Amino acid sequence: MMSMIYSLYSMVLCILIGNAYTKKKGTTMTKQMKGTPAPDFNLPRDGGDKLCLSDLQGKMVVLYFYPKDDTSGCTSEALDFTRLKTKFDEIGVVIIGISPDNVKKHEKFKIKHALDIILVSDEEKTTLEAYGVWVEKSMYGRKYMGVERSTFLIDSTGTIVEEWRKVSVSGHAENVLAAATFLHRKSLSI
């Protein structure tokens, strides 16, 4: 009898511990993606076309996820990437911003701020979830689902070589450019 209780206790404990370490859809637990193939997507982009990540194979890609068009932090981040776009272009890097906003909002956002980067719409949040950036957030005690500001540097083979989570906007685009430049120089020396 005692061994049966002990077995039952052990089983319950294993289940509880396992659940604590298992990523559940929509939780704040972040999956590490560095060194893994970048999840592909085929999403609507500004200008009305669709963008498929695999179509960019052979190029480095900066894929940054942001919460909402035309908010202060998101605008600053988009302006920073736009300001540095020529430097990214020089080393062959494509910059893509993804949010759950629709294409119409993206187009207004681009025009209003003269943005020179690609903006992609993920209204269904499938790509946000694939990259682990659609998470449960909390503000003033209220829990809600939202985008964790994150950036991924993807090499020319489609592998994630660097990731930044819970990004602070100030200086972030410069840090991403430095990492992309390092990767570019490293690829030239091979």
From TrEMBL:
* One GO molecular-function entry: thioredoxin peroxidase activity
- What are its E.C. numbers? 1.11.1.24
Q: Which GO terms describe its biological process?
A: cell redox homeostasis; cellular response to oxidative stress
Output a single Gene Ontology CC term carried by this record. cytoplasm
Q: Which CDD domains match?
A: PRX_BCP
Family affiliation: Belongs to the peroxiredoxin family. BCP/PrxQ subfamily.
Subunit structure, briefly?
Answer: Monomer.
- Put simply, this protein is called thioredoxin-dependent peroxiredoxin
Please report the organism this UniProt entry assigns to the protein. Bartonella henselae
Gene designation? bcp
